[in-house]
Amino acid sequence: MIAVPDLSAVKQALAAQRIETPSWAFGNSGTRFKVFAQPGVPRTPEEKIADAATVNRFTGAAPSVALHIPWDRVDDYAALARYAGDLGVSVGAINTNVFQDDDYKLGSVTNPDPGIRRKATDHLLEAVAVMDATGSRDLKLWFSDGINYPGQDDLRDRQDRLATALREAYDRLGDDQRILLEYKLFEPAFYATDVPDWGTSFAHCVELGPKATVCIDTGHHAPGTNIEFIVAFLLRQDRLGAFDFNSRFYADDDLMAGAADPFQLFRIMYEIVRADALDPARGINFMLDQCHNIEAKIPAVIRSVMNVQEATAKALLVDRAALAAAQRSGGVLEANAVFMDAYNTDVRPLLAEVRADQGLDPDPVAAYKRSGYQERITADRAGGEQAGWGA
Ligand SMILES: [Mn+2]
């Protein structure tokens, strides 16, 4: 059996783990072909926050919820943050949206039209004002900007325009605020994306300053990309700010974290543990970025939180002394066996204990189903328009 040096330290680390949920995971979503509406889906930002608070109530591990502007636009953001606080959660990252206006057909902050660049940059500044009101630390930026055809626009000029907009947003940040710059290989642009990979994001962050960090969305890479290498590299450079966890089989599928490749999630979390970066005080925001198109949304988010916890527990169980000894002696098979022993451990009983110690039900999904919450929201939210993409 594997040797675990200090099981109480493992349990303590798991109890302290924090995972941020996305408001949009609770609304209706779909593919480009169809959005399937579900009963009980939130109609307002407040109802999305109530659902996120429900996930936190059953997992004890999801005390913040990310908002998306303008999908979660309200008149009084300070009041929204107080409402969240009353439900036991805080407002997390503020996500910007410069991809849904007709103006952005040729790009937002990289658009060849300076008037459209101004409009997009003003939206980023508006998001920082929202952060001031909600007490949020993180400004999350993802740009759909890119081009579909060679020659459509100048690749280098677009980088200059991007840098200009990022600088303006960065200079607007308060002392305790920061930028999370997300990258994505392709889609909606199919030939060249302006922030396609971690290297581009990293370089812009370095140029901006210490308050700019990279956000890794696990679904935003080419197939076969070694994401844990990117994690290790960015941690070493102190430039990893956040994850958008989700699963993909093909492209940016946004399925539940740990559903498609739990082994990859374990390898990622091992690099986090290896860098001692799990502690919330280290400043890495472990977020979910998912869409639950056909499955029930709240239990899917609960399951996702549990999947991240399971991958983390396995990563914490790696016998690092044995691993280091095997690595030093060139024991290829032995080192790999140490890794696999941890991965193959059934950590569900351990996590059930951690939950019981916190006064939680050891099975959060079953507890949610028994709670009657789903039936209540289905009845209460029968009238009015459901929130979804673009709402
Ligand atoms: Mn994302």
From TrEMBL:
One of its GO terms (molecular function) is L-rhamnose isomerase activity. InterPro entries: L-rhamnose_isomerase (IPR050337), Rhamnose_iso-rel (IPR013457), Xyl_isomerase-like_sf (IPR036237). Its EC number is 5.3.1.14. The keyword Manganese applies. Keywords: Isomerase, Manganese, Metal-binding. GO terms for biological process: L-lyxose metabolic process; rhamnose catabolic process. This is L-rhamnose isomerase. It comes from Actinokineospora spheciospongiae. The lineage of its organism: Bacteria, Bacillati, Actinomycetota, Actinomycetes, Pseudonocardiales.
